[in-house]
Amino acid sequence: MIRSRRDFLRSLGVGTATGAAALHWPAGNISAGLSPEMARAGGPGGFILLNNSENPYGPSHRVADAIRASTGLANRYASMKENEVRERIANHCRVKPEQVLLGCGSTEILRVAACAFLGHNKKLIQALPTFEALEDYAKSVGSEVIRVPISRNFGHDLEGMLSHADASTGIVYVCNPNNPTGSLTSRKDLQTFIPKLPATTQIVIDEAYHEYVIPTGIYSSFIDNPIDDDRVIVTRTFSKVYGLAGLRLGYAVASPKVIEKMRAFLTQDSLNSVMAEIVGVALDDVGAVEEAVKRNHDDMQEFLNRAVTRNLSPIDPHTNFVMMNIQHNAAEVIEHFRQHKILIGPFFPSMSTYIRVSMGTPKDMTAFWQAWNMLPWSNKVMHH
Ligand SMILES: Cc1ncc(COP(=O)(O)O)c(C=O)c1O
């Protein structure tokens, strides 16, 4: 995952000082909800973006309309709306407003969790590989980070994680479904695991991709089906299925005491005033979320079919991206796609022959496979 806009520009070979002004965002595919000027599917320099697990179609028609109707609020802080947004989300999650913390994306929630529960002499335990934002923040506050390789079925190795947990463990991070593998960790195993953690350890369950999980017996959200344990912090976001990554709203659900502890480290007034206005519309548009999930499922199925005919081994995805073994050095393949103006997920050293591909529009994915077919060895893989 590219961590900052500066890194992103650097990854494109563009200097931040002079390059930014020269960049333009060409109109790409027209999304379901936005006008052509607003629906910019391509990134700077016309890159097809299959790298950040965004929703390539953007927000729903209703949400897009609400965004357009709210642009007049751009000059206002959203402070007066904050309680209302928190109540709206609390209602959605069936919890009390004092159990909800709003963040500038769920990334901010991960940052404030690090500030509140990590630091020198406090360690973070997480999977390898997993989403790395919390790890970065943990290091920035001086924490040691223990990375426990995922198990053979690509779920978290909870026993392994537990074996490292002691009184100095500030946070155990469980990303479920996991990024970058798209895999699930079983609810039953988590429920056995959590009570065994030290009393002073928080467990952060990152449910950024929750909505994409097609109901299955092994998965259950810790917001929808909470357990009575003050150590649990669940994070969610509007960046994925809602198609609102750029408007930056994520949230945590936890006990009021834990929320208060994290609140002290929040950026003040970070709530986006347009987002504050439209969040209710997004949450009410249940049909649009269902449609987005179905569309992702269809796009994914199409992708998996094409991958399997090429003898590739994708990890069963429960997300809007897929990690697959290409049996070649992934760094070279990532660079190959970049040369063809397609950005895919970053290189994961612990899974050096895997690439992570976020679902794009059908047109994006056609471009992906065209570029794939240009790999010098792609035929060999196909006819193995
Ligand atoms: C697992 C996971 N958590 C959190 C985030 C952060 O998303 P945001 O800050 O946009 O809510 C991402 C983004 O890719 C993610 O993959």
Would you mind describing this structure in some detail?
The chain contains 14 helices and twelve strands. The protein is of the alpha/beta class and 384 residues long. Strands 2-8-7-6-5-3-4 form a seven-stranded mixed sheet, with helices on both faces. Helix 6 links the parallel strand 3 and strand 4. The longest helix has 24 residues, at 286-309. It is globular, with a radius of gyration of 21 Å. The two termini are 31 Å apart. Residues 1, 53, 105-107, 131, 175, 179, 206, 208, 237, 239, 245, 250 line the site of pyridoxal-5'-phosphate.
**What would the average pLDDT be, to the nearest integer?**
90
Alpha carbon gap, first and last residue: 31 Å
Strand order within the widest beta sheet: 2-8-7-6-5-3-4
The count of helical stretches stands at 14
Main attributes?
single chain, 14 helices, 3-stranded antiparallel sheet, disordered N terminus, binds pyridoxal-5'-phosphate, alpha/beta, 384 residues
In summary, what is this structure?
This protein is an alpha/beta fold and about 375 residues long. The chain has helices spanning about 5-10, 15-20, 60-70, 80-95, 105-115, 135-140, 160-165, 185-195, 255-265, 275-285, 285-310, 330-340, 360-375, 380, and strands at about 50, 100-105, 125-130, 145-150, 170-175, 200-205, 230-235, 250-255, 315, 320-325, 340-345, 355-360.
